[in-house]
Amino acid sequence: MSAQRATDTVMPTAEDTVSHNPMRPPADSPRTAGQAFKVFLSHPSPLIIVLALIVLGTLRWQAGSLGWRDAAIALGLLALFPINEWMIHVFILHYRPRRILGVTVDFYLPKTHRRHHADPWNLEWVFVPRHVHALVLGALALVCFFAGNWRPEVLTASFAYLLLGLHYEWVHYLTHITWCPPLAYYERRVLEHRWHHFRNENYWWGVSMGLGDRLFRTAPNAKDTARSGTNRDLGLKR
């Protein structure tokens, strides 16, 4: 009797949960705000960005007071970021290997993104790889070093861009866990990105923002959009 009762209370495995409903996160996914923040901050990418923001914020504070130029730069980046993430998603993350002179040309970042589509609930493939941070932070450091009189404004731009990048990481992470803040904006972002993963990977390219999809008309009504059948392999053999 006790053995039967124990069997009845066994939790379903992650594989069972996903096979029952692919859009539902596995049973071990963070379910509370506390769990969500703990897991988020256990990954290197958010920590790297936070540390970079602290350094940039300190340097900007030492460079003098903020002015209208800083506000204009921040607002400009906020307006451009949806297009930026849309283009990166379309042209870099979904880059398809090409044969050039008999050689297959492919890159690490789209390879990892294909793994992300193949295993969307695996948080290992959700965050920006460390080598991308090395390239971006190295480039920002060089620009700041050679900025001359424009150094305060360059620091402001770097800080604003990385802050938007941290928000991108947060929203993307929310898409791939159970818990979501009870705010309509985040609920919508999570839903659209799950459509990208589980309905049709050719639409809903925006992650942290949806404006790019509205501008380029890649946010159709989900009910009117056929399932692609290639969400996991992106039409390529893994």
Q: Which helices and strands occur, and which strands form pairs?
A:
Blueprint: H1 2-8, H2 14-20, H3 33-40, H4 44-62, H5 68-93, E1 98-100, E2 103-105, H6 108-118, H7 130-145, H8 151-175, H9 184-198, H10 211-215
Antiparallel strand pairs: 1-2
Helix pairs in contact: 4-8, 5-8, 7-8, 8-9
**Oligomerization:** single chain
Distance between the termini: 46 Å
Indicate how many domains the architecture comprises: 1
Elements, N to C (H/E): HHHHHEEHHHHH
**How is the largest sheet built, in terms of strand order?**
1-2
Helix content: 55-70%
Rg, please?
21 Å
Alpha-beta content class: mainly alpha
Number of helices: 10
Morphology call: globular
Mean pLDDT: 89
Give a short account of the largest sheet. 2 strands, antiparallel
Beta strand count: 2
Which band does the percent of strand residues land in? under 5%
- pLDDT under 50 segments (min length 5)? 1-9
Can you give a write-up of this model?
By secondary structure, this protein is mainly alpha-helical. It has one domain. It is 58% helix and 3% strand. It contains ten helices and two strands; from the N terminus they run H-H-H-H-H-E-E-H-H-H-H-H. A two-stranded antiparallel ribbon has the order 1-2. Strand 1 and strand 2 form a beta hairpin. Helix 4 runs antiparallel to helix 8, helix 7 runs antiparallel to helix 8 and helix 8 packs across helix 9. The N terminus is likely disordered.
